[in-house]
Write a structure and sequence with these properties.
- This protein is of the alpha/beta class and 326 residues long.
- The chain folds into 2 domains: 199 residues, 3-Layer(bba) Sandwich (FAD/NAD(P)-binding domain); 105 residues, 3-Layer(bba) Sandwich (FAD/NAD(P)-binding domain), CATH 3.50.50.
- Strands 1, 2, 3, 4, 5, 6 and 15 form a 7-stranded mixed beta sheet that branches. Strands 7-14-8-9-10 form a 5-stranded parallel beta sheet, covered by helices on one side.
- A hairpin with a 3-residue loop joins strand 11 and strand 12.
- The protein is globular.
- The two termini are 23 Å apart.
- It binds flavin-adenine dinucleotide (FAD).
- The site of flavin-adenine dinucleotide has 34 residues, from helix 1, helix 2, strand 4 and helix 8.
Length: 326
Amino acid sequence: MIAEPLDLAVVGAGPCGIAVGIAARQLGLRCLLFDKGAVTQAMIEHPTYTTYFSGPEKLEIGGVPFTTAGDKPTRREALRYYRKVVAFFGIAVCQYEEVIELHGRHPEFLVRTQTLHGEAREYRARNVVIATGYYHTPRRLEVPGGELPKVQHYFKEPFFYFDQDVVVVGGGNSAADAALTCWREGARVTLVHLFDELDRGVKPWIRPDIDNRIAEGAIPALWRHRVAEVRSREVVVEDLGTGKQRTLSNDWVLAMTGYVPDTPFVSGLGVRVDFITGIPAHDPGTMQTNVPGIYVAGVVAAGFDANKIFIENGKLHGPLIASAVA
Ligand SMILES: Cc1cc2nc3c(=O)[nH]c(=O)nc-3n(C[C@H](O)[C@H](O)[C@H](O)COP(=O)(O)OP(=O)(O)OC[C@H]3O[C@@H](n4cnc5c(N)ncnc54)[C@H](O)[C@@H]3O)c2cc1C
């Protein structure tokens, strides 16, 4: 137990949590970050060969220049950059330490954590920032067999799927990317999507590639279909228009069905979360929620629409929060 309470305890050391840490440090606040994984754990879990769509200047935090070999940063470059930034500012991060409980009220919260080795720890903090992102809570396929290990919510690399029957579920960027890269490495890919077409947000440089592969039949797309059941060697898909089901031979299901923010964690603190949007009640000028002393930072503030806040704009929450607390 730390004797003097922290000014700020930040739950989550993604880019937006780190941005809070930098701003706090610049204002002389006592601030500690916690992450259940490593620094930027969620980005570590992004597909290995990701090239981000944002230019490096958009991903910069703390005013530290980010230069990259190409026009857009690769995952490896971004991971290295954020580590350098944490070291440069001397941001204190308790890695592999999950925040499991928060109690109390402003100006004294009790932060209970558990380390990777099972050790329980406690900290006191005047204010708490929830910057837990969404990537660790996938939207699961709630169907029989949806819990089988062959159903994967994270796509890392295509090489596992050579000469395999793969169903990719979803119609966004992640689904398009997983379908294309697996197909290129010799997987037999079928795309299954609830709607008539791919999502509008699919990036313009991916769109012609996926559209053409679908049009030529290289990647068959089952529009207005859902996965109804997953079996060890098959999946059952259902036409949402007719209700007719059919069985596809299958080795892997890549469920690129998105991620949801960890709202139970937030609402458990008394923060009001909008039932429809999933947005925690907060003042956009300070990022303070309806619970005094509890702030939200990064994509968790966007509720269910994770495309509204990303690093580019979520990094701006740090200075707002630090100023409000200071
Ligand atoms: C493939 C891909 C490409 C993307 N490209 C871009 C891009 O080009 N530009 C852009 O701006 N955005 C991009 N994004 C989105 C971007 O990655 C997210 O918006 C960003 O990571 C959100 O940052 P964050 O700090 O809010 O949350 P996260 O990065 O998700 O960090 C949250 C952290 O909280 C930790 N955590 C969660 N719960 C706890 C707990 N109880 N205790 C302790 N720690 C906890 C997690 O381990 C994690 O490290 C991309 C996303 C994906 C998947």
